[in-house]
Amino acid sequence: MMKIRKSLYLLGIILASVLLGSPSAAAADYSVYLDTLSHIRGMASDVSVMTLSLSNMNPISGIQFDVTLPSCVTFGYPEMLLDDNRSTRSHSLSVNKLSGYSNKYRVLIASSTAKALKGNDGPLVNMNIIMSNTSSYNGYYYIDVSNIIASESDETQHNISSTRGVVRYGYMVGDANGDATVDIADYMATASKILGNSPSPFYSDAANVNNTASIDVSDLVGIANISLGIRPITYRYGNSYGFYANNFSVDGTLLNSCEGSRDVVLDARATGDDRLYIEDFSIEPGETLSVPVLLDNNVAYGGLQTDLYLPDGLSVDMEDDEYIIDLTSRKDYSHSLSCFEQGDGAIRIYVSSMSTAAFSGNSGAIMTISLTASSDFHGPATISLKNTICAEPIGTKHVLQDETCTVNSNSSGVILGDVDDNGSVGISDVSALIDYLLSGDTEGVNLEAADCDHNNNVGISDVSALIDFLLTGSW
What we know:
Layout: H1 2-20, E1 30-34, E2 47-56, E3 62-68, E4 73-82, E5 91-97, E6 104-111, E7 121-131, E8 140-151, E9 157-160, E10 163-168, E11 170-172, H2 184-194, H3 204-207, H4 217-228, E12 235-237, E13 243-245, E14 247-250, E15 253-256, E16 268-269, E17 275-277, E18 281-282, E19 288-296, E20 303-309, E21 314-316, E22 318-319, E23 322-323, E24 325-327, E25 335-341, E26 347-353, E27 365-373, E28 381-391, E29 397-399, E30 403-408, H5 427-439, H6 447-450, H7 460-472
Parallel strand pairs: 16-29, 18-30
Antiparallel strand pairs: 1-2, 2-7, 3-6, 3-8, 4-7, 5-6, 8-9, 8-10, 11-12, 12-13, 14-15, 17-19, 19-27, 20-26, 20-28, 21-27, 22-23, 24-27, 25-26, 28-29, 28-30
């Protein structure tokens, strides 16, 4: 009897499902979410882009929702745009301010052919928002998205839970040009401002590092310290409070303020063949060399910074606890050079001019680095110059390509990895090394060059080391 009752119960559930239709998916399978704390700004009038993302289990053809803005936030023009990766040509978006509300808008996204949105997760709408420049700011403000209804192409409806994002008035301390980084360009722009010039763009509140009544040399020193990594990146929120924070708390939840980025990219890729680079060279174990760093520039630069990455066995010499890196005659009398080791082991080199003077000439060595090779140094190895930024005297920023050079140590005349001894390292050396390991025949094999991992033994680990070199360009 119990089995019969259970069977009837299950049959009832099945019949109800057929008669009433399948229920829509659980709410957890459909959600929207907004950016949070992603709008660091140097001035309140800047336009920010806040992204609304949609996650949907089944394909969605249309969606509507209400957006409520805080009183100090308005939409820019256009109010919002559909993300190309989610929408089709037939999808359209309309925004209308709701009657009776001061800052509430209804958004409708639909396709006239009931076509589904692309994908099932990712950004859907990019909203252009502006913080009013008449308000008195105090950190962060909520943007709410509510009354969210999504529809599949067969009219199946899904009610989605509301979401909340945070927009915040604030800026990165030291970010004088407002590009969400602090570097040599901010230093040059601030120096220019102190000297009575009018760099543009320039954000005085961000350049005022020590938060006093004026922008002066102490702020310049602060920007240099932030750029070199001596002083940590901090943010300042609100016009009247002027406090520092590395993290920001909203409703007791600790949010990382380092996610902020400016939407208008101010970095300018250097034109022409502008380069900061080191030419290939050789150094013997135990030897010390003065290695030139060359700058080829079509633009007149007044400052630069770069991160120097050295391989194992090479080091920069020191004197009086300072790296021996010297500027050449291309510098102006006002140029100075500073260095500071970064967390990843790179040496950040920082060249600036207090009088915003430009380097002389358009090519040649801009500095020399005193390098010493350890007694067990083996080439070839790779030196890299990365994250190179050059700044014009007024602070205009140019980002240069990363550069690498090859360092050889040829005391024995052997090229590491040149197993077949043909004067170059390539895939034929891998074949020669494998053939030797399989046959033991040393004819045509340079065993000294084959010891790629420097363990005084030729084995399968040398094959791995050689392949890694061919893939990465460095030992």
